[in-house]
Amino acid sequence: MPTPDNMTIHRTVRKDGRDYLNRMGIDQEVPRDMEEHLTNLFFTWHGPSVDVVDRNMYEVAKQQWQEHIEDTPYYSEALTSAMCCLGAAFEARYHPTFITYPKSLSDFFADRAKTTLEIELDSPTVATVQAMVVLSGHDIGCRREARGWLYSGMAMRLAFDLGLHLDMTPYVANGSISQAEADLRSMVFWGAYTLDHHWGYLLGRPFRTNLEDVTVQKPGLKSKRIEAQRWCPYGLPYATSFPAGLSIPLFAPLLSLHRVILSEIMTPLGHVLYGSSQTSKEELQRLNVEVTDRLLHWKENLPTPLKFTIDDYTIPLPHVLLLHMHYHQAIIHAHRPWMSKSSIQPQPQRGPGHAHARMMCIESATCIAQLLRIYEKYYTFQRINVQAVAITCSAALMLIFAKAIHHSVHDDQATLSNLNICFRALEEFGSSWESAKRAQGFLLHMQRLWDTRVRLHNSSKRLGSQSQDISNAAAETPASKRSRNSFTPFAGGNGHSYGSTGIHTESDSDGLDLLWAATMGTMPPSAQ
C-alpha cells in the first residue's frame, strides 16, 4: 500500500472554521436564542417534508460536539447553518439587531454553511449529506438552480460513498451501531433520493439512481417514530383557523415512505422524458398508462393518517397537504406531454387522446388550488416549503390554459378564482424565494400572450363564420332551416366534456394547440 503523505494538512471545522468564516466576513457570533428560533422554524415547516434530520439525534450530537468536544458523524456546523438558512426564509429578510446587510439573513447562514461545508468535504460524514440536501432547497429557491442541483447530486453520491444505501441489520445485531443510527441512515438516504428526483422533474434534467444495489429499508416500515412525535405550528406570523395550543400527531416516517413510493412511481417516466430520445411514441404512451395506474393506486391506498379530501373537516398537517400537492403535480407531469393534439400523439391516434390529458391536468391543477386555499386558512403562505413554488406554478399554467379554452361564464369564474389563489400564493412566496417572483412573471407573460392569441383566433372564426353564412343563405331550403332551428344534444365527434369541471375543447383549436406546444419549450425551471 502507498505510504501516507505526512505533509498533507487536514483541515477541520473545529480548528480552521473560524478562520475561514473570518476571511469571508461572516464570522459574527450567532446569538443562541436566534439559532434556536430558526432551527425551530426549520423543524416545524421544512423538516417533515424533507425528512433527513432527526431532531433528537441532532440535539444529542450537537451537545456532544459543542460541550464534550467530541466529533460525531451526526452533527456539523454546516448542517446547523443550513437549517438556520431555511428557517430564516420564513422570517423577514433582515434582522433588526443582527446585522447582515447587504446579505439577507437567509443568505448569511447559507454562506456560513457553504464555507464550513467546503472544509467538511475533506472528511465527510452523515451530517455532511444532510447539509447538502438542505442547502439544495435554498439555492434552487434563490434561482441558483445549477448549484442546488449539484448539491442534491453530491448528496446522493456521498450517501453511496458512506454506505447509507446498505442494510444495517447485521451491524445492529452485533452491536456495531444502534437501531436509532440505522434508522437515521435510512432516513437520510431516502430523503436525499426523493428530493433529488423532485429537483430532476422541477428542472427537467435527467436523473436515475440504480436501486439494484440499495438494500436499506425504506423509512416507516419498522420505525419506532411512527406515533412518537406531535406537531404544532410554531411561529405562525398571525392568528389563523388553527386552534391555539393544539398539537396533532406527526407521522413523519409514513410521510417519508409514501414520498419515496411516489418518487419510485415517477422515476421511469422521468428517465424517458428527460434522459432518452429513443423511446417511441407508442412505448411512451404505454409507460404513461402504467405510471398513471400506479399513481391512482398510490392515492387510493394511502394510510388513514395521510388521507385527505377537500370536504374533510379535520385539521390537516401542512406536510400532508403538500404530499397531496405532490401527487397532483405528478398527475400533471404524466399527462402534460399529451395535451397537444399533434406533438407526440401516435398517428393514427390511439388511447384516450389530448382531451383526456387536458382534463386530467386541469382537474389536478384545480385540486392544487383548493389545497392551497386550505393551507392558507390554517398556516398562511408565509409558512410553506420551497417545493410549493414549482407545484403552484405548474397548477397556474394549467389553469391559464383552461381559461383560454373555457366557453361558459360559470367555468371561467371558477378558473379565475383558482388562478387568483395561485397568484396570491406566488406573491407571498416571493418574499422568501426569488424563484416565485420569476414564476409569477412568466405566468403573467403567458396569460397576456394566450389572451391575445385567443382573441385573434375567435375574431378570425367569427369573420369566417359570417362569410360562410352569407354564401349559404341563398341555398338554404325550408327543410334545412327547420333542422337548424331544432336542438339535438351533441354526442360524439371531436368535442370533449371534462366531466365535473365543465370544460370543453373545440375541434378547430389548432392555434391554441400550436401555442401550447411552443409554450412548453420556453418554460422556466420553476414551471417544469
From TrEMBL:
<feature type="domain" description="Xylanolytic transcriptional activator regulatory">
    <location>
        <begin position="148"/>
        <end position="225"/>
    </location>
</feature>
<keyword id="KW-0539">Nucleus</keyword>
<keyword id="KW-0238">DNA-binding</keyword>
<protein>
    <recommendedName>
        <fullName>Xylanolytic transcriptional activator regulatory domain-containing protein</fullName>
    </recommendedName>
</protein>
<dbReference type="Pfam" id="PF04082">
    <property type="entry name" value="Fungal_trans"/>
</dbReference>
<feature type="region of interest" description="Disordered">
    <location>
        <begin position="460"/>
        <end position="491"/>
    </location>
</feature>
<dbReference type="GO" id="GO:0003677">
    <property type="term" value="F:DNA binding"/>
</dbReference>
<feature type="compositionally biased region" description="Polar residues">
    <location>
        <begin position="461"/>
        <end position="471"/>
    </location>
</feature>
<keyword id="KW-0862">Zinc</keyword>
<dbReference type="InterPro" id="IPR051615">
    <property type="entry name" value="Transcr_Regulatory_Elem"/>
</dbReference>
<keyword id="KW-0804">Transcription</keyword>
<keyword id="KW-0805">Transcription regulation</keyword>
<dbReference type="InterPro" id="IPR007219">
    <property type="entry name" value="XnlR_reg_dom"/>
</dbReference>
<dbReference type="GO" id="GO:0008270">
    <property type="term" value="F:zinc ion binding"/>
</dbReference>
<keyword id="KW-0479">Metal-binding</keyword>
<dbReference type="GO" id="GO:0006351">
    <property type="term" value="P:DNA-templated transcription"/>
</dbReference>
